[in-house]
Structures are given as C-alpha cells and as structure tokens.
Amino acid sequence: MQRRSFISSAAVASSLFLGSLHRMSTKACFAEEVTPVDVLVNKKTRSAIEKGLEYLKRKQLKNGKNKGAFGNSGYPSGVAVTSLAGLAFLCSGSTPVSGPYAKHIDACVDFVVKHVRETGYIARSDGSGFSNMYGHGYAMLFLAQVCGMSSNKEVSTKLAEAIKMTCGIQNAQGGWRYQPRKADADLSITICQIMAMRAARDSGMQVPDEVRTKCIEYVKKSQRADGSFQYTLAGGRTSVALTAAGVVSLYSAGIYEGDNIEKALKWIMARKPGKGVSSSQVSPMNYYYAHYYAVQAMWHAQIQHPEYWNEWYPAIRNELFEKRSGDGSWPDGRVGPEFGTAMSCIILQMPFNYLPIFSP
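Above: the chain sequence. Below: its structure as tokens.
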C-alpha cells in the first residue's frame, strides 16, 4: 500500500516511493499481528453503528429550505454537523448514488453546496449554525470525498472556490484562525484546513505548493520536546486532541517515521481511553473531536506499530459503548447529539477503510 502525501515535488515523490516500498514490506511482516476487522468491529459494534446511522437518518431534515441539515437552529443546523454526518454515512460504504444512505448523503451534499458563498466561504448566510473555519474545513473535506461521485454538478466548482478562499487567507505563520481572514492562527483550526486541502488535492484539485509547505511547517513548529503539540506557536495548552491531529497532519505530509512521530504516538498512548488519565486529558468539550483524530493517528500507526492500533480501537470502542443513549445516539452537551453521533460513527467505522482521506 503506497501512502499519499499532502506535500508533493519530484524529489519528495521519489523519496516517498522508496519509503513506501519499505513500509509495504514492513506492513506485510506485521499483517498477521493486526487484529482482523471482524474481531474489532464485532456484532455489538456493528449494531451500535447501525443504530447511530439510523438516528442520523431520522434527524435529517427532509423538507424546507434547510433540507439535508439536522436542525433549524444551533450547531446542528450548520455545515459542520451536516458534513460530518455525511462523512459518517460515507464511512458505512454508501455513496451519493448507491447504498442504504445514498439519498441522505446526497441531501447533505446539496445543503453544503447551497451554502458556499460567493467568496468561497462555506457557511450559512443567515447567521445560523455558529459558522466558523471549522465548519468550512469539514465541509471542504466532505465535498472532496464525494467529488466525482455526486450527481450535483456544482460540487467540483464550489470546492475549487472554497480551496481558493482558504489559500488566500493563510496567515504569515502558515495557519488559520476561526474567521475567514488573515489574522493569527491556532493548530486546531489549521489542521482542519490541512486535512480538507489534502482530501481536495487527492480528488484532483490544485493546491499551491507554497500553501502546503507553509502549513506543514506551522504544524512542525507546534510540537514540544515531549512529543505533544501546543495550541499556538506562542504557547498554550497541549492535549490529546491537538497532538493526535498534529500526528495525522504529519502523516498527510509524508512523514511516517522519526522521533517526532514516535514521541507523539507514545504521548497519546499514555492517555489511552480507560487508563484513568484520559478524562483529565480529553475534556468533555472536545471529547469527540479528540478521538476523531486519535483513532486516525492510531489507524495510520498500525503499519509501524500494530500494537498501538490493536490496543487503541477496542479501548475507544468500549468507552463509546458506555456513552450511548437509549435511542442509539451519542450525547454532546455543547454541540448536540447529531454531532456526537456522527463523530462516534466515524470513529467506530474506521476499520472499514472506505474513505480515501482516512486510508493509511
């Protein structure tokens, strides 16, 4: 399996090709040590996923101007939750044109496309949905995953407009902040844009080399000596969320090995769900966001460290079992159950490996 890189040049491509041969060989040696999908995603897990997706299916608005969204007001009514729900449906194997959730994905696509402004910023124009660059990033990521599959002919055009806007507002440090303008930057928002642009590039869109290089340098500078990643270049908190997201960004840049990766992975593993320290490192406010990136980090890490993946997935899976509500949803006191459910379904379906952006 040859990994894709967010950074591209002839020299890097040659290096990555040779490196990929080594990694494929390494993976072949460790293949028998990686827990099979059917063992990880057992009957209980599949039932939880199905109930979660059915919950999202029920909550999606079927008619009116907000068709495709998940509420008329609050966070669920915005492009962020709609895009994450669309990704959750895609992770099951459905597409905008086939599968049991095809029409629901298609409705998500139509809603998101409808809210790409003339500037390229993806956000509700009526002020609903608590719009910011998180929503814009998730929306770009979602559109990139359906680009070429959706019957909506505006997807590629609107995605290109969104990418252009994102590239145009990158700040001098190489990052982004909450609002669509050049200002300061933080790692959390920056990584959201990195993943979206990497997905867009994989779908065939153009992302300038200088933009890619600057944002990856920003991520590298955000890492501390202990392997964790901090909120801004000036300092600030470190967390499982930031560190896991930082690792995923490095993987996207083609950095698969080395002290930066090893230290970060060990730092995250020391805070594995169920270890007793997890609750102090992953606050309720960003619980699902943290584990959305953490499961990706460990999924990628399985090539060099199958033991990390084998330990991490069952731990978060079992923790998520405990958080479920009786209606099949996952509660979230800040954003809402639609968000918690979409994120949980993405996390639990990671072993299915259906989405290109999540592929190791």
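The radius of gyration is 19 Å.
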